Amino acid sequence: MPVIETRALKKYYGKNRGIESVDLSIEEGEIFGFIGPNGAGKSTTIRTLLGFIRATGGEARIMGQPCTDKNLSKLKRRIGYLPAEAGYYPGMKVRELLNYSAKYYGASAKSRINMLTQYFELDTNRPINALSSGNRKKVSIVQCLLHDPELLILDEPTGGLDPLMQAKFFALLLEEHKRGKTIFFSSHILSEMQKLCQRVAIIRDGVIISVESMASLKDNRYKKVRVVVREGAAPVALRLGGAKDCRPEGAHVSFLYSGGVKELIRELDRLDVENFWVEEPDLEEVFMHFYRKEGAENEPLPSGN
Fold first, then answer.
1. How far is Cα 82 from Cα 140, in angstroms, rounded to an integer?
2. In sequence order, which residues have a C-beta less than 8 Å from that of residue 218 and are 6 or more positions away?
3. Do 274 and 189 belong together in one domain?
4. How buried is 2 (Cβ within 10 angstroms: 0-12 exposed, 13-18 middle, 19+ buried)?
5. Are 60 and 9 in contact, with CB atoms under 8 Å apart?
6. Residue 141: domain span
7. Is residue 167 domain-shared with residue 295, that is, in the same domain?
8. Residue 123 belongs to what H/E stretch?
9. What is the distance between the alpha carbons of residues 222 and 218, in angstroms, rounded to a whole number?
10. What is the pLDDT along the chain (305 residues), one digit of tens a residue?
11. For residues 80 and 149, is the Cβ–Cβ distance under 8 A?
12. Which of 162, 183, 216 is the last residue of a domain?
Protein backbone atom coordinates (compact mmCIF):
# COMPACT_ATOMS: atom_id res chain seq x y z
CA MET A 1 0.00 0.00 0.00
CA PRO A 2 1.45 3.41 -0.93
CA VAL A 3 2.15 5.77 1.95
CA ILE A 4 1.14 8.73 -0.24
CA GLU A 5 -1.18 8.38 -3.20
CA THR A 6 -2.92 11.01 -5.31
CA ARG A 7 -5.20 10.55 -8.30
CA ALA A 8 -6.07 13.42 -10.64
CA LEU A 9 -5.48 15.84 -7.75
CA LYS A 10 -6.42 19.35 -8.82
CA LYS A 11 -6.36 22.77 -7.20
CA TYR A 12 -7.56 25.99 -8.80
CA TYR A 13 -7.60 29.44 -7.24
CA GLY A 14 -10.63 30.81 -9.01
CA LYS A 15 -9.65 30.59 -12.67
CA ASN A 16 -5.94 30.35 -11.88
CA ARG A 17 -4.29 26.95 -12.03
CA GLY A 18 -2.47 25.66 -8.97
CA ILE A 19 -2.07 21.99 -9.92
CA GLU A 20 -3.73 19.94 -12.63
CA SER A 21 -4.36 16.18 -12.43
CA VAL A 22 -1.40 15.27 -10.18
CA ASP A 23 -0.87 11.49 -9.86
CA LEU A 24 1.66 10.27 -7.29
CA SER A 25 2.35 6.94 -5.62
CA ILE A 26 5.05 6.82 -2.92
CA GLU A 27 5.88 3.51 -1.30
CA GLU A 28 6.71 2.84 2.34
CA GLY A 29 10.40 3.33 3.10
CA GLU A 30 11.07 5.32 -0.06
CA ILE A 31 12.93 8.61 -0.39
CA PHE A 32 10.89 10.24 -3.10
CA GLY A 33 11.85 13.53 -4.71
CA PHE A 34 9.40 16.11 -5.99
CA ILE A 35 11.24 18.51 -8.21
CA GLY A 36 10.34 21.49 -10.33
CA PRO A 37 11.05 25.20 -10.66
CA ASN A 38 9.53 27.73 -8.31
CA GLY A 39 5.82 28.10 -9.09
CA ALA A 40 5.51 24.63 -10.66
CA GLY A 41 3.00 23.43 -8.03
CA LYS A 42 5.15 21.61 -5.46
CA SER A 43 3.98 23.50 -2.39
CA THR A 44 0.37 23.55 -3.60
CA THR A 45 0.43 19.75 -3.90
CA ILE A 46 1.87 19.36 -0.40
CA ARG A 47 -0.49 21.85 1.21
CA THR A 48 -3.45 20.14 -0.47
CA LEU A 49 -2.24 16.75 0.75
CA LEU A 50 -2.04 18.02 4.32
CA GLY A 51 -5.43 19.74 4.24
CA PHE A 52 -4.14 23.30 4.54
CA ILE A 53 -6.00 24.08 1.34
CA ARG A 54 -8.90 22.16 -0.18
CA ALA A 55 -8.59 20.30 -3.45
CA THR A 56 -10.72 21.40 -6.38
CA GLY A 57 -10.89 17.82 -7.67
CA GLY A 58 -9.35 14.37 -7.51
CA GLU A 59 -8.38 12.46 -4.39
CA ALA A 60 -5.44 12.04 -2.03
CA ARG A 61 -4.57 9.38 0.54
CA ILE A 62 -1.92 9.18 3.23
CA MET A 63 -1.24 5.77 4.78
CA GLY A 64 -4.35 4.48 3.05
CA GLN A 65 -6.63 7.09 4.59
CA PRO A 66 -8.42 9.78 2.55
CA CYS A 67 -7.02 13.23 3.29
CA THR A 68 -10.12 14.55 5.02
CA ASP A 69 -10.19 16.82 8.07
CA LYS A 70 -11.24 13.92 10.29
CA ASN A 71 -8.47 11.60 9.14
CA LEU A 72 -5.75 14.23 8.97
CA SER A 73 -6.21 15.22 12.61
CA LYS A 74 -5.08 11.70 13.53
CA LEU A 75 -2.59 11.22 10.71
CA LYS A 76 -0.65 14.37 11.55
CA ARG A 77 0.67 12.70 14.68
CA ARG A 78 2.44 10.27 12.33
CA ILE A 79 3.68 12.94 9.93
CA GLY A 80 6.58 15.37 10.22
CA TYR A 81 6.05 18.42 8.03
CA LEU A 82 8.78 20.93 7.24
CA PRO A 83 7.40 23.96 5.37
CA ALA A 84 9.50 26.09 3.04
CA GLU A 85 8.91 29.00 5.41
CA ALA A 86 7.48 28.93 8.91
CA GLY A 87 6.04 31.70 11.05
CA TYR A 88 6.52 31.63 14.83
CA TYR A 89 5.43 33.56 17.90
CA PRO A 90 8.30 36.03 18.09
CA GLY A 91 8.37 36.30 21.87
CA MET A 92 8.85 32.57 22.47
CA LYS A 93 12.18 31.00 23.18
CA VAL A 94 13.25 28.02 21.10
CA ARG A 95 12.81 25.49 23.91
CA GLU A 96 9.36 26.85 24.77
CA LEU A 97 8.26 26.38 21.19
CA LEU A 98 9.65 22.85 20.93
CA ASN A 99 8.07 21.78 24.22
CA TYR A 100 4.77 23.28 23.08
CA SER A 101 5.02 21.33 19.80
CA ALA A 102 5.74 18.08 21.68
CA LYS A 103 2.55 18.55 23.73
CA TYR A 104 0.58 19.12 20.52
CA TYR A 105 1.69 15.72 19.26
CA GLY A 106 1.13 14.07 22.64
CA ALA A 107 4.78 13.07 22.63
CA SER A 108 7.26 12.85 25.47
CA ALA A 109 10.15 14.16 23.42
CA LYS A 110 12.59 15.69 25.89
CA SER A 111 15.50 13.37 25.04
CA ARG A 112 14.86 13.64 21.30
CA ILE A 113 14.65 17.44 21.45
CA ASN A 114 17.96 17.51 23.32
CA MET A 115 19.57 15.19 20.78
CA LEU A 116 18.35 17.17 17.77
CA THR A 117 19.18 20.63 19.15
CA GLN A 118 22.68 19.50 20.08
CA TYR A 119 23.14 17.90 16.66
CA PHE A 120 22.18 21.13 14.91
CA GLU A 121 24.07 23.32 17.40
CA LEU A 122 20.90 25.21 18.26
CA ASP A 123 20.75 27.46 21.32
CA THR A 124 17.33 26.73 22.81
CA ASN A 125 17.44 29.62 25.29
CA ARG A 126 17.38 32.30 22.59
CA PRO A 127 14.15 34.03 21.51
CA ILE A 128 13.02 32.96 18.04
CA ASN A 129 12.89 36.54 16.78
CA ALA A 130 16.61 36.89 17.58
CA LEU A 131 17.61 33.98 15.35
CA SER A 132 19.13 34.13 11.89
CA SER A 133 17.20 32.60 8.98
CA GLY A 134 19.47 29.54 9.12
CA ASN A 135 18.79 28.99 12.82
CA ARG A 136 15.06 29.46 12.31
CA LYS A 137 15.27 26.73 9.67
CA LYS A 138 16.99 24.50 12.24
CA VAL A 139 14.07 25.13 14.62
CA SER A 140 11.68 24.02 11.86
CA ILE A 141 13.71 20.85 11.28
CA VAL A 142 13.73 19.92 14.97
CA GLN A 143 10.00 20.66 15.19
CA CYS A 144 9.41 18.37 12.20
CA LEU A 145 11.36 15.47 13.73
CA LEU A 146 10.82 15.74 17.47
CA HIS A 147 7.82 13.36 17.66
CA ASP A 148 9.67 10.65 15.67
CA PRO A 149 7.14 10.56 12.78
CA GLU A 150 6.81 7.70 10.30
CA LEU A 151 6.45 10.00 7.28
CA LEU A 152 8.50 13.12 6.60
CA ILE A 153 7.13 15.71 4.16
CA LEU A 154 9.83 18.27 3.45
CA ASP A 155 9.12 21.35 1.33
CA GLU A 156 12.30 23.10 0.13
CA PRO A 157 13.97 22.06 3.41
CA THR A 158 17.50 23.46 2.99
CA GLY A 159 16.72 27.15 2.41
CA GLY A 160 18.84 29.22 4.81
CA LEU A 161 21.15 26.37 5.83
CA ASP A 162 24.86 26.78 5.22
CA PRO A 163 26.67 23.94 3.37
CA LEU A 164 27.90 22.31 6.58
CA MET A 165 24.42 22.19 8.07
CA GLN A 166 22.98 20.95 4.79
CA ALA A 167 25.42 18.04 4.91
CA LYS A 168 24.50 17.27 8.53
CA PHE A 169 20.81 17.46 7.68
CA PHE A 170 21.18 15.05 4.74
CA ALA A 171 23.17 12.65 6.94
CA LEU A 172 20.38 12.72 9.53
CA LEU A 173 17.72 12.09 6.86
CA LEU A 174 19.63 9.03 5.66
CA GLU A 175 19.76 7.73 9.23
CA GLU A 176 16.02 8.32 9.60
CA HIS A 177 15.50 6.43 6.34
CA LYS A 178 17.53 3.48 7.69
CA ARG A 179 15.11 3.43 10.61
CA GLY A 180 12.26 2.87 8.16
CA LYS A 181 11.00 6.41 7.60
CA THR A 182 9.34 7.39 4.32
CA ILE A 183 10.56 10.75 3.03
CA PHE A 184 8.77 12.98 0.51
CA PHE A 185 11.26 15.67 -0.43
CA SER A 186 10.33 18.71 -2.52
CA SER A 187 13.04 20.88 -4.03
CA HIS A 188 14.02 22.88 -7.11
CA ILE A 189 17.68 21.91 -6.64
CA LEU A 190 18.68 18.81 -8.60
CA SER A 191 21.87 18.16 -6.61
CA GLU A 192 19.76 17.64 -3.48
CA MET A 193 17.72 14.99 -5.29
CA GLN A 194 20.90 13.20 -6.38
CA LYS A 195 22.16 12.90 -2.81
CA LEU A 196 19.01 11.38 -1.38
CA CYS A 197 16.28 10.20 -3.68
CA GLN A 198 15.50 6.84 -5.25
CA ARG A 199 12.75 8.18 -7.51
CA VAL A 200 11.67 11.64 -8.55
CA ALA A 201 8.45 13.12 -9.89
CA ILE A 202 9.06 16.05 -12.22
CA ILE A 203 6.38 18.75 -12.19
CA ARG A 204 5.97 21.59 -14.68
CA ASP A 205 3.12 24.11 -14.83
CA GLY A 206 1.11 22.15 -12.27
CA VAL A 207 1.34 18.84 -14.16
CA ILE A 208 3.48 15.75 -13.46
CA ILE A 209 5.41 15.32 -16.69
CA SER A 210 7.49 12.30 -15.66
CA VAL A 211 8.29 9.96 -12.80
CA GLU A 212 11.82 8.60 -13.07
CA SER A 213 14.16 6.48 -10.98
CA MET A 214 17.33 8.35 -10.17
CA ALA A 215 19.22 5.41 -11.66
CA SER A 216 17.43 5.84 -14.99
CA LEU A 217 18.29 9.54 -15.07
CA LYS A 218 21.94 8.66 -14.46
CA ASP A 219 22.14 5.80 -16.95
CA ASN A 220 23.31 5.93 -20.53
CA ARG A 221 20.02 6.60 -22.30
CA TYR A 222 21.08 10.05 -23.46
CA LYS A 223 24.12 11.26 -25.33
CA LYS A 224 25.16 14.86 -25.73
CA VAL A 225 25.81 15.57 -29.41
CA ARG A 226 27.69 18.66 -30.58
CA VAL A 227 27.90 19.45 -34.27
CA VAL A 228 29.77 22.06 -36.30
CA VAL A 229 28.20 22.79 -39.67
CA ARG A 230 29.45 24.93 -42.53
CA GLU A 231 28.97 28.61 -41.74
CA GLY A 232 26.32 30.40 -43.75
CA ALA A 233 24.32 27.23 -44.45
CA ALA A 234 20.55 27.56 -44.74
CA PRO A 235 18.54 26.34 -41.71
CA VAL A 236 17.03 22.87 -41.97
CA ALA A 237 14.90 21.17 -39.32
CA LEU A 238 16.63 18.33 -37.49
CA ARG A 239 14.78 15.08 -38.31
CA LEU A 240 15.69 12.87 -35.36
CA GLY A 241 12.95 11.35 -33.23
CA GLY A 242 15.25 10.94 -30.23
CA ALA A 243 16.65 14.47 -30.30
CA LYS A 244 15.85 16.87 -27.46
CA ASP A 245 16.77 20.46 -26.72
CA CYS A 246 18.35 21.38 -30.03
CA ARG A 247 20.27 24.61 -29.42
CA PRO A 248 21.92 26.23 -32.42
CA GLU A 249 24.58 28.87 -31.78
CA GLY A 250 25.94 30.05 -35.10
CA ALA A 251 27.70 27.15 -36.77
CA HIS A 252 27.59 25.09 -33.56
CA VAL A 253 24.58 22.95 -32.61
CA SER A 254 24.12 20.81 -29.50
CA PHE A 255 21.30 18.47 -28.48
CA LEU A 256 20.54 15.44 -26.34
CA TYR A 257 19.93 12.22 -28.22
CA SER A 258 18.44 8.93 -27.05
CA GLY A 259 17.99 7.09 -30.36
CA GLY A 260 20.08 4.65 -32.37
CA VAL A 261 23.57 5.39 -33.63
CA LYS A 262 22.72 4.52 -37.26
CA GLU A 263 19.86 7.03 -37.31
CA LEU A 264 22.15 9.71 -35.91
CA ILE A 265 24.84 9.06 -38.52
CA ARG A 266 22.29 9.11 -41.37
CA GLU A 267 20.93 12.45 -40.21
CA LEU A 268 24.37 14.00 -39.81
CA ASP A 269 25.29 12.75 -43.27
CA ARG A 270 22.28 14.63 -44.64
CA LEU A 271 23.70 17.89 -43.28
CA ASP A 272 26.81 19.80 -44.22
CA VAL A 273 28.79 18.75 -41.13
CA GLU A 274 32.39 19.78 -40.60
CA ASN A 275 32.83 18.01 -37.25
CA PHE A 276 30.87 16.44 -34.41
CA TRP A 277 31.34 15.06 -30.87
CA VAL A 278 29.29 12.52 -28.91
CA GLU A 279 29.76 12.49 -25.12
CA GLU A 280 28.03 11.75 -21.83
CA PRO A 281 25.83 14.62 -20.60
CA ASP A 282 25.77 15.57 -16.95
CA LEU A 283 22.57 14.90 -15.03
CA GLU A 284 21.58 18.56 -15.06
CA GLU A 285 21.48 18.55 -18.87
CA VAL A 286 19.44 15.32 -18.96
CA PHE A 287 17.02 16.68 -16.42
CA MET A 288 16.52 20.08 -18.01
CA HIS A 289 15.00 18.68 -21.20
CA PHE A 290 11.85 17.96 -19.19
CA TYR A 291 11.35 21.71 -18.79
CA ARG A 292 11.62 22.65 -22.43
CA LYS A 293 8.23 23.70 -23.78
CA GLU A 294 6.70 21.55 -26.47
CA GLY A 295 7.72 22.73 -29.92
CA ALA A 296 11.05 24.14 -28.70
CA GLU A 297 12.94 20.87 -28.84
CA ASN A 298 13.86 20.48 -32.51
CA GLU A 299 14.64 23.98 -33.68
CA PRO A 300 16.15 24.37 -37.14
CA LEU A 301 19.88 23.98 -37.49
CA PRO A 302 22.05 25.12 -40.38
CA SER A 303 22.64 22.83 -43.35
CA GLY A 304 23.97 23.18 -46.84
CA ASN A 305 21.37 20.81 -48.35
1. 6
2. 283
3. no
4. middle
5. yes
6. 4-216
7. no
8. none
9. 9
10. 899 999 999 999 998 999 998 999 999 999 999 998 888 899 999 999 999 999 999 999 999 999 988 888 889 889 999 998 888 887 899 999 999 888 887 767 888 999 999 999 999 999 999 999 999 999 999 999 999 999 999 999 998 899 999 999 999 999 999 999 999 999 888 888 888 999 999 998 899 988 988 887 766 577 888 888 776 655 555 677 778 777 777 778 888 888 788 888 888 888 778 888 888 776 677 676 666 654 444 444 444 33
11. yes
12. 216
For the chain, how many structural domains are there in total? 2
One domain for residues 201 and 77: yes
- Looking at this protein, which amino acid is placed at residue 188? H
**Is residue 159 domain-shared with residue 196, that is, in the same domain?**
yes
End-to-end CA distance of the chain: 57
Task: Name the residue type at position 19.
Answer: I
Neighbours of 73 (CB within 10 A): 10
Answer yes or no: are the C-beta atoms of 211 and 193 closer than 8 Å: no
Q: Identify whether residues 77 and 130 lie together within a single domain.
A: yes
| Cα 144 from Cα 183, distance rounded (Å) | 12
- DSSP state letter for 93: B
Residue 49 in 3-state DSSP?
Answer: helix
Question: Residue 301 — φ and ψ, nearest 5°?
Answer: -125, 160
Which DSSP symbol is given to 108? Answer: -
- Angstrom distance (rounded) from CA 129 to CA 126: 8
Amino acid, single-letter form, for residue 117: T
**What CA–CA distance (Å, rounded) separates 155 from 275?**
45
